[in-house]
Hints:
The structure is a single chain. The chain is mostly helical and 345 residues long. The protein has helices at 3-7, 13-16, 18-35, 39-44, 53-67, 82-107, 112-122, 130-136, 141-169, 176-205, 207-243, 245-272, 277-288, 292-303, 308-336; strands spanning 47-48, 51-52. It contains 15 helices and two strands. The protein has a two-stranded antiparallel ribbon. A hairpin with a 2-residue loop joins strand 1 and strand 2. The chain is globular, with a radius of gyration of 19 Å.
Amino acid sequence: MNEPEIAGKKLSxxxxxxxxxxxxxxxxxxxxxxxxPGIGVAIDSWQISGISVPxxxxxxxxxxxxxxxxxxxxxxxxxxxPKPIFLTLVSNWIVAPIVGFxxxxxxxxxxxxxxxxxxxxSSSPCTAxxxxxxxxxxxxxxxxxxxxxLNTVTILVLFAPLVALFTxxxxxxxxxxxxxxxxxxxxxxxxxLGIASRRxxxxxxxxxxxxxxxxxxxxxxxxxxxxxxxxxxxxLNGTVMLENPDLLVLVSIPLLLGFAIVVGFNLIITRxxxxxxxxxxxxxIIGSSSHFEIAIATAVSMYGVGSIAALGTxxxxxxxxxxxxxxxxxxxxxxxxEFWKGEPM
Length: 345
């Protein structure tokens, strides 16, 4: 991985206060739902095969910039240092989904859409913001890119079957075909366009222009799309939220407990595996995060833009940003305490 890519991950002032902007957009969305009550009907009426076009556009613009970091050639480096990659995959595809499923069943009985929201979040490892968190934590960025690339590929294969499995065990009926379509539309298409546009633009304009001009602009567009999506989602769910504030608290319990359990597991397992700080911190960060974009997109596709499921997945986003930022500082503190004693790779 070259230096321009690493340097490009630094948080801007706007990104550092992302939790604040998220909160503001939530409030704006709720206010909008009361001032313009017909907005939900107008937005929800524009659909193609059950997928909301306005939300779909916003979510696509959220996903595409992350895919610009994906490089298929990075997967060839798996043999170089397989242990942290293996531990991350175990956390992402075994520990986190099982923990999320158990907590959802324990704390959300009778709330099917909230259970599905937790299952969607816990069954989708992050492929975007972890590049930023890994840079801030001063972790192994080569491992970060390899893991991110591998997660993107595995989501295409494992996400839909896992969600179908856990919802099936829960006796919650879902449209499995729509689930597969959501993965193809919101992961497959951005992935192909990201890889293709990266090659085309680097060949025509050069790597420096791509890293320092195009990617930052695309990243800004992604943040704008994220905040726009939140305003729309909360404008559609504003009335439901005001009438059922207990649901927000209720879904937050398994989400926060899930973060605590999975982060704790990853801290212990990376120490037991004797990883060095730079490899361990990336393993903990990626192994503890979720892909809220695909979770939101799938919830919206299956239940609609004004659904409880969509609202539940947005709460995952609301909690993840400050938690992951906090994890960066926890990791740096543990480095000073020599928590990880492995030899650097």
